[in-house]
Amino acid sequence: MTGSLTIAGLGPGDEALITPEVSAALARATDIVGYAPYVARVQPRDGLTLHPSDNRVELQRAGEALRLASEGRDVVVVSSGDPGVFAMASAVFEALEDAPEWRDLPIRVLPGVTAMLAAAAACGAPLGHDFCAINLSDNLKPWPVIEKRLRLAAEADFAIAMYNPRSASRPDGFGRVLEILREAGCGERIVVFARAVSTPEQRIEMVELREARPEMADMRTLVIVGNSATRRVGRWVYAPRQVR
Ligand code: SAH
């Protein structure tokens, strides 16, 4: 019996933003594997086993998903947003490196609406010109790498989408991030704090970077720093199509 492994993105929160392809995979799954809050977004039903786990056990979770698939189960590993953006798809391929016996399993990665795209749409078009995305958590990379990338992104005048800006275990890093961007001359750039986008708790705040405070972000916030040409029109913010 051949099982399958699907790595799927559930989008930023609203059910309407789950793609039909992901809904179909969830409907035929026998097992759902993932971080507990994401697994909780999947409707329980007969014949479906849920495997919620802690946030810090990504590789172990990926290995478990591969093992279940090798035993003939139709497994869906769920992430929020897109599974390839700071999420489980990389962990599955990393686990596969150590497990040649599973490389012939049918594996699919199904895209989802990542937080930065939902956040950008909620406030206008701040990613309409060149941009980059950075994960501000130093759980999986050294802090100096984050600082270096921020400085270079500022110098290159990218709009910058920031994931995982601030958590209870990392309360101070984001203040430092704002400081680095001020030092890099970005004080007048527009910053968008997009919290819980596409959920009933959605809140969008826009300020100039020099007025931004660390408390404006938490783990449910996606932060977008505009480029030097980004501007506001009414309640919207956008990056002009042309940069001179
Ligand atoms: N794979 C996910 C990202 C996981 S990292 C994706 O593609 O979106 C988790 C971070 O994503 C959070 O700390 C936050 O910065 C951002 N995020 C996820 N959902 C969000 C939402 N609904 N609103 C704002 N930010 C969100």
TrEMBL record:
Keywords: Cobalamin biosynthesis, Methyltransferase, S-adenosyl-L-methionine, Transferase. Pfam families: TP_methylase. Pathway: Cofactor biosynthesis; adenosylcobalamin biosynthesis. Coiled coil: none annotated. GO terms for biological process: cobalamin biosynthetic process; methylation. Residues 5-212 form the Tetrapyrrole methylase domain. GO terms for molecular function: precorrin-3B C17-methyltransferase activity. Its EC number is 2.1.1.131. It is an enzyme of class 2 (transferase). It comes from the Bacteria. This is Precorrin-3B C(17)-methyltransferase.
